[in-house]
Write a structure and sequence with these properties.
The protein is an alpha/beta fold. The chain is built from seven helices and eleven strands. An eight-stranded mixed beta barrel has the order 1-2-4-5-6-7-8-11, surrounded by four helices. Helix 3 packs across helix 5.
């Protein structure tokens, strides 16, 4: 298991050179939220990080807004379709957690619609990020036949990633084990300070081979 992936948004400072020297391999950056918010630092940081050789990912922070509008917003910010080589290397993720500013949360049916639309538009299912809302929404006893196509990026600030709905995901792909305060150390990254940090069950070479964890419509369909 390696601890070489961070995630952030425009509110977080980052010195890419220090982060790289600290051994970080992958960065997942907020691109959009809801139907209209666009992270103002996403594109400049993407271009700088890719030029340094980082693995790159983009996440969309969910809301109860129109799913079509959210998908359009996300794919427009990441400039999907403008550069096929970049698209092929960019991790896409749906951040399925309680909405900010007290707004209504994305429902499970909306999450189904979002990942299905992303698959239709891009040819792959996105990674899905979640913690308590995901655990509450996805049954622990029955399989979710849509979300099971999405690699799981699991948030659990505990010594072990307990509580995964294993009927849908037998195991996590990424585990966010700290938000920079809660969870096991280390909490900080040189060049960032206290940060969201994520573990991958494998080696650095395996991470590079599997990134961006893209899955097509028939992946994970075994009975």
């Amino acid at each position: 298991m390696i601890d070489t992936i961070v995630d952030l948004n425009h509110d977080n400072d980052i010195d890419l050179h220090q982060v790289q020297s600290a051994g970080i391999l992958g960065i997942i950056h907020k691109a959009s939220e809801g139907h209209g918010f666009r992270d103002p630092r996403y594109r400049e940081r993407r271009d700088a990080a890719i030029s340094l050789g980082f693995l790159w990912g983009a996440y969309h922070f969910s809301s109860a807004d129109s799913v079509q509008d959210q998908v359009d917003n996300f794919l427009d910010v990441v400039q999907w379709g403008d550069d096929g080589a970049r698209d092929a290397k960019t991790l896409l993720a749906l951040d399925f957690e309680p909405s900010s500013h007290g707004r209504p949360n994305m429902s499970l049916s909306q999450a189904h619609d979002f990942v299905t639309q992303i698959n239709t538009r891009t040819g792959r299912f996105p990674v899905i990020y979640g913690g308590s809302l995901l655990r509450e929404s996805v049954s622990s006893t029955t399989r979710d036949n849509i979300l099971r196509n999405c690699p799981l990026w699991y948030a659990r600030y505990a010594p072990q990633p307990i509580g995964i709905p294993t009927q849908t995901w037998p195991a996590y792909t990424l585990w966010q084990y700290t938000d920079g305060e809660s969870g096991d150390p280390p909490h900080s990254v040189p060049g960032m300070g206290p940060s969201d940090r994520n573990r991958f069950q494998g080696t650095g070479d395996e991470l590079k081979r599997q990134w961006p964890f893209a899955t097509g419509p028939t992946t994970n369909q075994s009975q």
